[in-house]
Amino acid sequence: MRLYIRQRFFSWTDSFEITDEEGYAVYSVRADLLALSHVLRVFDDQDQEVGLVREKLFHFLPTFEVELEGELVAVIRKEFSFLHPRYRIDCEGWSVEGNLFGWNYQIYRDGELCGTISKEVIALTDTYVIDFDDPQDELMIVMLVLAIDAANCSEH
């Protein structure tokens, strides 16, 4: 399966549209305007909130909490590394490892590759392509991409 995450060009805050391979909207993402840190709310195609990514303040490296349908399901922490970005995810054996430039990532669940994230380099806004096999992983992988994008934004 494949999803595309595109940041909206004209927006006061982080705002993304998530579409499937045919271009149909699957999710939309809106940031809280007056938050002190990243707070990204994910809505389904019926405009119902299904997820939340919230940056925790006062951490040495970016740290995010992920809620799905109001329940805390994961904490994502960027780990210190020299060559390529690495994230530890406190949730069911998930981990993410990136390449040297932080544009491509592999997603692992219990040590098995379950998805990939690639950033389109030539685009007007941040655009990610997500490939994954299990439809049950879809929303969690979307939340990971949003946290990674916010972590990269926080560091720069």
Automatic annotation (TrEMBL):
Q: Which Pfam families match?
A: LOR (PF04525)
InterPro entries xref list: LOR (IPR007612), LOR_sf (IPR038595), Tubby-like_C (IPR025659)
Please name the Gene3D superfamilies in this protein's record: LURP1-related (2.40.160.200)
Protein family (similarity comment): Belongs to the LOR family.
Q: What is this protein called?
A: LURP-one-related family protein
